[in-house]
Amino acid sequence: MRTFTPGRALVLAILAVAAGCSESPQQRAAPPPPKVTVALPVKRNVVDQDEYVGRFIAIDSVEIRARVSGYLDSIHFTDGQMVKQGDLLFTIDKRPFQTTLDQAKGNLQQAQANLAFTEADLARGAQLVKERTITEQTFDQRTQAKRVAEAAVTALTAAVRQASLDLEFTELRAPVAGRIGDRRVSPGNLVTGNTTGTTSLLATIVSIDPIRFEFSFDEASYLRYERLAKGGRDMTASRDGTSLVSLKLLDENDFVHQGRMDFVDNVIDRSSGTIRGRAVFINADGVFTPGMFARVRVPGSPSYAALLVPDAAIGTEQTRKYVLTVGADDMVQMKYVTLGQVFDGQRVIKAGLQDDDRVIVNGLMRARAGQKVAPQTEAPPTPMAGSPQADTN
Q1: Is the pTM higher than 0.85?
Q2: Among 8, 44, 20, residue whose Cα is nearest residue 387
Q3: CA distance linking residue 61 with residue 290, whole number of Å
Q4: All domains of the chain, ordered by start, with CATH?
Q5: pLDDT for 193-217, tens place per residue?
Q6: For a Cys-Cys bond, which of 111, 278, 323, 368 suits 152, CB 3.0-4.6 Å?
Q7: Helix (H) or strand (E) holding 110
């Protein structure tokens, strides 16, 4: 039986290592190039978008206040409900005002009867003065009496109209359509209404549809918008109501609500260096509420042709951005690029990339500059339907 000594085992190990070293490079299989997915940049016409934070404000906001003093008789709405223009909201006790109106009408009828008598008396006096039956002084007195009677009729007619208005003011109706707040006074309380002192606030109404959205932008953006507008670019934030804007609420991911700019202020705030802008949105479902915050997207440039690549294909090297491309020899190249905005998950490349460059969009961790790869072409992405920011050529 053969036995192995330590010396013999060492000799066998040395011979095995020597046999491995004598193996040729051709006998060792080289690893295959890594597989990556490449795609050509997408050509689209895009418009840069500026985003701002703002809040909704009502087009009409009205305080319902009493115009006459009296005891509140009844309330004809539910707190927080939608009301139409002309809807009856409050009723003040009408009885004192009806009495005042009836009295004013009686005084007017008495004055009208007196006027009729003075007119007839003056007509008789005109004939008598011709016959010299009465003196000129007596005729002048009858003329004066007629004028006094006419003045009394005019004054009492105005008193009747005022009494009618006071009676009408006992019914407080909605001056605008919108949502009414809660009642501030309960029936049975005395409300004050006059033109010289404090009047009783009964409720408030704010219009809902349409609704305005107010935001502020800086002076540099204002200058850019003005110059674009004067250059015939009417898609930017302008005062003529032609600029389309989009909006999203705090719990939404996309800018799905469309509206129009309708106002830009005429003064820049000296304390903040900003100017106020305003847009109008349809609010048929009543989701937008005055005071609510949201983000608005405003066109900030004319339409221009741009190259877009998936945002995930962008790499970072300290402060510079780059993409990895694959040349005709399947070698990886690094290209530094200037980035624009993101549209539908695609990043605008403003400089540093050609439209025929094959950009690595998948497998970036397996690719290195100067390395050979096995590229596989990916189909171009389909733009989102209805996207106003980017259109495929």
Answers
A1: no
A2: 44
A3: 10
A4: 35-46+305-392 (2.40.420.20), 50-59+208-299 (2.40.30.170), 65-92+170-206 (2.40.50.100), 94-169 (1.10.287.470)
A5: 876 668 889 999 999 989 999 999 9
A6: 111
A7: helix 95-130
